[in-house]
Write a structure and sequence with these properties.
Strand content: 5-15%
Number of strands: 5
Radius of gyration: 20 Å
Helix content: 40-55%
CATH class of the largest domain: Alpha Beta
Bound molecules: adenosine-5'-diphosphate, magnesium ion
Order of helices and strands: HHHEHEHHEHEHHEH
CATH architecture of the largest domain: 3-Layer(aba) Sandwich
CATH superfamily of the largest domain: P-loop containing nucleotide triphosphate hydrolases
Number of helices: 10
CATH topology of the largest domain: Rossmann fold
Strand order of the largest sheet: 2-3-4-1-5
């Protein structure tokens, strides 16, 4: 909104309400622009919002409430770590993308971090710092990349010490994850954090059958 379009109360300037409305609009525009240009969220998920997540079962309702609480906490400046584990096609990436939209977060897959560290190994320190500094980061496909044991503990540890927030998404079961990432990381980050388990049928199948 252009402030010139705000009704001016003669002699008094803008009312508090008008200023609050203008500031909220500015914030919304910043959020939209960041999401569009810098969030790294894929096209498939760009138009999805929290309201698109269908929560029918008690588990899905719990998932949605937990995600909303995570967003609220992060937007209030609290640092949080959230693990989303479970079956494919059950909405993990959808909700991870919504979290990016709502918190001005950055989305990536584990191998994006690995590739970045490999490509910039001469500036490893600065490259690593970039990943540890994002205020809100969503890391998808955790446990799929061979080299991640080498950097994941350090990354999560430094993000934790930096008091920034991280969502970790994986299709692996807790025991597979423990094997992939190592006991230390598992004990420190999986065991002690809020974690959500996604169960049930893949929505991909139903989306495909609708398209047929
Ligand atoms: N509970 C849900 N409500 C609405 N759409 C869903 C839900 N779960 C999954 N989807 C949709 O199904 C597709 C696959 O979901 P996705 O988030 O990619 O699954 P995952 O990351 O868990 O493998 C996406 O198009 C997503 O929007
Ligand atoms: Mg996914």
């Amino acid at each position: 909104m252009d402030l010139s379009s705000v009704v001016v109360t003669e002699g008094e300037g803008y009312t508090d309400e008008e200023i609050a409305q203008w500031m909220a609009q500015q914030e919304q525009e910043k959020k939209d622009s960041f999401f569009e240009t810098s969030s790294n969220v894929g096209k498939r998920y760009k138009n999805k919002r929290l309201s698109d997540y269908i929560a029918e079962t008690d588990e899905q309702k719990h998932i949605l409430e937990t995600v909303k609480q995570y967003i609220k906490d992060v937007n209030e400046g609290k640092d949080r770590t959230l693990w989303m584990c479970g079956a494919t096609g059950t909405g993990k990436t959808l909700l991870g993308s919504c979290i990016c939209y709502e918190t001005k977060g950055v989305y990536c897959k584990t191998y994006d971090i690995k590739d970045d560290l490999v490509e910039n190994h001469f500036q490893r320190k600065q490259t690593f710092k970039k990943w540890t500094d994002y205020q809100s980061l969503v890391i998808d496909e955790v446990g799929r990349c061979e080299a991640e044991k080498d950097f994941m503990f350090q990354l999560l540890n430094e993000r934790y010490e930096n008091e920034v927030s991280t969502v970790i998404i994986t299709n692996l079961s807790p025991s597979e994850l423990k094997e992939k990432l190592g006991q230390a990381l598992y004990d420190r980050f999986v065991h002690n954090c809020v974690s959500l388990t996604f169960k049930g049928e893949s929505h991909r199948k139903s989306e495909r059958s609708i398209n047929i």
